[in-house]
Specification:
Shape: globular
Structural class: mainly alpha
Radius of gyration: 19 Å
Strand order of the largest sheet: 1-2
Number of strands: 2
Order of helices and strands: HHHHHHEEHHHHHH
Largest sheet: 2 strands, antiparallel
Low-confidence stretches: none
Mean pLDDT: 86
Length: about 300
């Protein structure tokens, strides 16, 4: 396979596994514990995976400098807030909707860039953000009215993940690895070892039982694969095209939702009429299109 083909496949794999991680999270919440327990259990499992992978996949000599401490703290704090907000939202929003709603991150990023750095946006980017907002409203249109249950948690998750993404970028740059992929994989390992240790220290306080750690494995494994796929994708095809590929998770999640609903897995995906699924599909495609427009008109 050519490098471009590997990059595209990695991006699509990341989108698929991220969609699967959403389902894994909902499975945990239905059977084992609450959103805080899932956040802690997931970070412990991913941290353990990162620790085991460290001797084989740390791809940089400049593993840690004190300049990275603030970046790691920003990354992991944003990750914890993002995870908790996301898992809390899953109590109210099914995975097929929540995956598309995560596309609203482009609006949050734009607002932060405007407030913090005075950034300006092209007409196409503004149109893309407007389409994303319309898609978000359409996703929440149910039974003749707008359903905003859980949207506060979604907003919190988007804020957390945006700051986590910013921290990841800073960590990777400070590592001075040979290439983006090496820096990304090494940054992933360092960040998740740190967050995993922090989560392990909270296990007793959060009443994490062994069965909860086992229950978090599906979500955690899917998350690890999705993040590694994303790093490889970004390293080969760049951030703009990588974000486009990742945005396909909304459409993928709708297709997975149809399959789960049809198979009778009501605990993971609520049964809905064909018209509701068509509306979800339309909203997912609109969100995907908005991210494509925004990403292709962003430098870098």
């Amino acid at each position: 396979m050519t490098p471009m083909a590997i990059g595209i496949c990695s991006g699509l794999l990341a989108a698929l596994m991220q969609s699967c991680s959403y389902i894994g999270g909902r499975y945990f919440l239905q059977r084992y514990g609450n959103s805080l327990q899932l956040t802690v259990a997931s970070l412990v499992v991913v941290g353990l995976i990162a620790l085991l992978a460290a001797p084989f996949f740390l791809l940089t000599k400049n593993l840690f400098t004190w300049h990275m401490a603030g970046s790691i703290l920003l990354t992991d704090a944003g990750l914890v807030v993002g995870h908790w907000g996301f898992f809390s939202a899953q109590k109210y929003i099914e995975s097929s909707r929540i995956a598309s709603l995560m596309g609203l991150k482009i609006v949050i990023i734009a607002l932060l860039a405007f407030v913090c750095f005075g950034s300006r946006f092209s007409a196409v980017q503004l149109a893309a953000m407007a389409v994303a907002v319309v898609a978000g409203v359409l996703i929440n249109y149910q039974k003749g009215r707008l359903n905003w249950s859980g949207m506060g948690y979604i907003f919190l998750a988007l804020i957390g993940y945006c700051f986590s993404d910013l921290g990841v970028q800073m960590v990777v740059e400070n590592m001075q690895a040979e290439n983006t992929i090496a820096g990304g994989v090494s940054g992933f390992i360092v960040n998740y070892i740190v967050s995993g240790v922090g989560a392990a220290l909270l296990m007793k306080k959060c009443r994490i039982e062994r069965k909860m750690l086992r229950g978090a494995i599906p979500q955690a494994l899917c998350w690890v694969v999705s993040m590694l796929g994303l790093y490889v994708c970004f390293g080969i095809v760049g951030a703009a095209f990588g974000n486009v590929l990742q945005a396909s998770r909304g459409v993928i999640s709708v297709l997975l939702g149809v399959g789960l609903s049809w198979a009778g897995w009501q605990a993971l995906e609520q049964k809905a009429s064909a018209s509701v699924w068509l509306l979800k599909g339309l909203a997912a495609v609109m969100m995907f299109g908005a991210i494509v427009l925004y990403a292709l008109n962003t430098k870098g």
